[in-house]
Structure formats: C-alpha cells, structure tokens
Amino acid sequence: MNMNLRTFAVIALVTAFCFSSALVASDKAPPKFYAFAVEAGVRGVKPRALPEQAAMLRNIGFDGMGDLFWLDGQLEPNLHTLDAAGLQLYLLQAGIDISPKAAAPYDKRLPNAIRKLKGRSVTVVVTIHGLQPGDPAGVEPAVRALRELGDVAAETGVRVSVYNHVNSWAESVPFIVEVVRKVSHPQVGFNFNLYHWLKVDGDKDYRPLLRDNVAKLFSVIICGSQVGASTWVNGIIQPLDKGDFDNRKLLAMLDEMGYHGPIGLMCYAIPDDPREHLTRSMNVWRSWFAK
C-alpha cells in the first residue's frame, strides 16, 4: 500500500471510530430518554403504583415513560401524576384486532382517550393482531383502522405508530413499512423496537430500511441485547450495560439521518431490581453522551 492509500485508510478508520463512539460531537443535546414497560412481565412481581414508579424514574434521571394505554378511567389522573413528577408521557400502547370475527377493530374508548392527549408529545403505538403474521387478508381492515385512528390523532396533534411486535400480524418492520405506505396518512408511521427486530428481522441490515423511511419512523425503543439469543430474559432484553448489540452505532445513524424523536428503553421482563438496573442503564446512556 502506498503512502496516499495508507493515509486514506487511517483517516477512514478514525472517522468511523469517532462517529460511533462520540455520539455528541457538537453542542446538540442528547435525545430524550424514557423507560417503557417498567416492572412488566417479571414473574412474581407486581408493578409498583404509578406515583412511586414515576418518582423512581425521575430520581434516576429519565425524561419520561411509556405504558399500556389507560382505558379504565385512569388516563387523566395518571397524566396529572406524571405532570406532578415532572415526567413526560412519550408512548401509550393500544391494539387493533383485524380478525374477521372481531366485533370492532379497537376498543370503543380509544378515540376519546386519544383526544384527551391534546397538547402532549405522545405516540400511540398499536399492536395489530387477529391474523397470522403478514396475512394479506389483514391489509384492508388494518389500513382502514389506522386511517380512522390517524384522523383522531390529527385532531390532537399526536401520532399513531404501528408496533413491530413478535407473533403479531405486523411483526416485521419491512412489512409494516409497506402497510404504512398504503395507509398514506400524515399521522401514521412505524416503530423500531430493537428486541422485536432482532427476534423477527435480525438477519437483515436495519440501516437502509430506516434511512429510506425515516420520515415515517415515529418511535425507537432500544435495550441491551445479546445478538443471536433466543430468550428475552438475560438474552434479547437486558439493561444497556449487558449484551453485544451496538446501540451506539444505531443511535449515531439515527442522529445522522435526522431522527430527533425520543428514545425508549425496553424494560419488559428484566428480573433485576428495577431501581438498580434502571440506574445502570442510565449511567451507560449518560456515558454515551458525555463531553
């Protein structure tokens, strides 16, 4: 290798290293960071009451949280609880049923609940179920339901995002992107949940898909993850100080391509003490953006 080629190779290597290891090379603030599904799915654990959970998250340093959609009359009290704790609500999860036997595509309380989110930067993520993954028979009812919810979301300024959830009809992100294109609604986009991506699409390169469709990328949720693992506990879903998936590379690419939304931390089924594992993840997160 001559000197010019050698110099070029060194510069390229240094540039690549700096891009992935120094996520903040300017004065830009890091993305907002929130916890999702805290204490959910942990065997033998009853999640603590929301006021206690909110205080814990705020004390650790999270900007907000995400949860299942509260359709039991607790939406407004819970919003007040989060406001009092100084936490932003970033995500609420609901469902769409596209089964031919479904009495309705979604809970009849959902539209009015979405209207109560007016003025809040919330993404309503929907898991679509009722048919086998990717069944073409589900496209028409899914598109119709998503357009209906998109219209409601437009009234309040919130957004609807299709959740890539393993074993659901819309488990695969490339498939969801095609559905979102068919919906063609400004308030309807798609999720990138790292755990579910690795379970379903982990053999694919996420970079071109996200780059080509960033305008419709409405939600990103990460976790520490062991690539190739088959279980979520101590496998695909872990705190950020565990696993070998390169989250810093993902975050750097999101920043480069212009994704400026919040980043969620997937906490489902993590068996460690929540305050302890959330603190560990927060320490890692802060280290990524330290100047």
Write up what this structure looks like:
About 40% of the residues lie in helices and about 15% in strands. It contains 10 helices and 8 strands. It has helices spanning about 5-20, 50-60, 75-85, 110-115, 140-155, 175-185, 195-200, 205-210, 245-255, 275-290; strands spanning about 35, 65-70, 90-95, 125-130, 160, 190-195, 215-220, 265. An 8-stranded parallel β-barrel has the order 1-2-3-4-5-6-7-8, surrounded by 5 helices. α2 (about 50-60) packs parallel to α3. The longest helix has 19 residues, at about 5-20. It starts with a helix and ends with a helix. Mean pLDDT is about 90; it is low at about 1-20.
CATH topology, anyone? TIM Barrel
Return the domain count.
Answer: 1
Quote the beta fraction. Answer: 15-25%
Strand order, biggest sheet? 1-2-3-4-5-6-7-8
Uncertain regions spanning at least 5 consecutive residues: 1-22
Number of helices: 10
CATH class: Alpha Beta
**Net shape:** globular
| Overall pLDDT metric | 91
The termini sit apart by 36 Å
Helix content: 40-55%
Q: What is the number of E strands?
A: 8
**What is the CATH architecture descriptor?**
Alpha-Beta Barrel
Q: For the record, what is the CATH homologous superfamily label?
A: Divalent-metal-dependent TIM barrel enzymes
List keywords for this structure.
291 residues, alpha/beta, TIM Barrel, 16% strand, disordered N terminus
Short description:
This protein has 291 residues and is of the alpha/beta class.
List the helices and strands and how they pair.
Elements: H1 3-21, E1 33-36, H2 50-60, E2 64-68, H3 75-85, E3 88-97, H4 110-115, E4 123-129, H5 139-156, E5 159-162, H6 173-183, E6 188-193, H7 194-201, H8 206-212, E7 217-222, H9 247-257, E8 263-266, H10 274-288
Parallel strand pairs: 1-2, 1-8, 2-3, 3-4, 4-5, 5-6, 6-7, 7-8
